[in-house]
Write a structure and sequence with these properties.
By secondary structure, this protein is α+β, with helices and mostly antiparallel strands. The protein is 23% helix and 27% strand. The protein has helices at residues 3-37, 121-124, 199-211, 238-242, and strands at residues 40-46, 61-67, 86-87, 102-103, 113-120, 134-141, 153-166, 170-171, 189-197, 214-219, 235-236. The strands form three sheets. Strands 5, 6, 7, 8, 9, 10 and 11 form a seven-stranded antiparallel beta sheet that branches. The chain has a two-stranded antiparallel ribbon with strand order 1-2. The N and C termini lie far apart (126 Å).
Length: 244
């Protein structure tokens, strides 16, 4: 082997050693990164904006994976934990789903029953009434067909009614007859609202929904005591102001 061949062998050996050193360095770097990042786990991201108090279903979220060390302990890792619950705040597209973003739907208490009625969207809801809210339910009756001496009046039929669920805006058939849900007095859209009421209050609401000219809701404050109506304040007629 001449000198040129020996130099070639030496260069080849050095190249192999350098390649092995580089490979070892890459392995060390990868191992270090993996050690710092840790294993990947499953999480869920919001596909599209979800309004507060909307019932949650699995198709509203997409599955992703990310390093466990970067995921908060409050993150949702199993969608079965949120199915059937509601969002407690507006969920924005791309947000990581957290446990404190959801809550159980309001449930019936002992002695209560569910009753749902259609409420005119423009006069009774205005987007501010949500599940868990407390409202006063008012009904306005005209004097038509109520006998001699009857006057139009507004009546508080249920004070402090608890809202269980607020449905989606729905077109209503104006050709029917009855209360806000079908009476042809100009309403074009309504929202189904479900209340938790006693039997007596449910009967009052059902009567008003069928025979009142309008049924309206008044939202009560979330915090603080709920004021009870004073004697004589549960009904109102225009004549009361005329005599003052």
């Amino acid at each position: 082997m001449n000198a040129r061949q020996r130099r070639g062998v030496i260069l080849l050996v050095l190249s192999v050693l350098c390649a092995l050193g580089a490979f070892a360095g890459v392995v060390v770097v990868i191992s270090d990164v993996q050690a710092k990042v840790g294993p990947e786990v499953t999480a869920y991201r919001v596909k599209a904006d979800v309004a507060a108090y909307t019932p949650l279903q699995p198709d509203r979220f997409e599955k992703i994976t990310m390093p466990e060390r970067w995921l908060s302990a409050n993150a949702v890792r199993d969608l079965s934990a949120v199915t059937g619950k509601i969002a407690v705040t507006d969920l924005k597209k791309g947000s990581l789903l957290q446990k404190d973003m959801v809550a159980d739907r309001p449930a019936l208490e002992s002695g209560e029953q569910e009753i749902a009625i259609m409420i005119d969207a423009s006069t009774g809801v205005a987007g501010k009434i949500t599940a868990g809210a407390r409202v006063n339910i008012y009904a306005t009756f005209d004097d038509e067909g109520r006998g001699k001496g009857a006057v139009a009046e507004s009546r508080l039929i249920v004070p402090g009614a608890r809202v269980l669920d607020v449905g989606k805006l729905t077109p209503i058939d104006q050709r029917g007859s009855g209360g806000d849900s079908a009476r042809a007095y100009g309403a074009r859209e309504a929202v189904p609202i479900t209340f938790a009421l006693t039997t007596a209050d449910a009967q009052r609401v059902a009567y008003a929904e069928s025979f009142a000219k309008h049924v309206r809701l008044a939202l009560l404050p979330k915090d603080g005591p709920q004021a009870s109506p004073k004697p004589g304040d549960s009904t109102y007629t225009l004549d009361e102001d005329k005599t003052k």
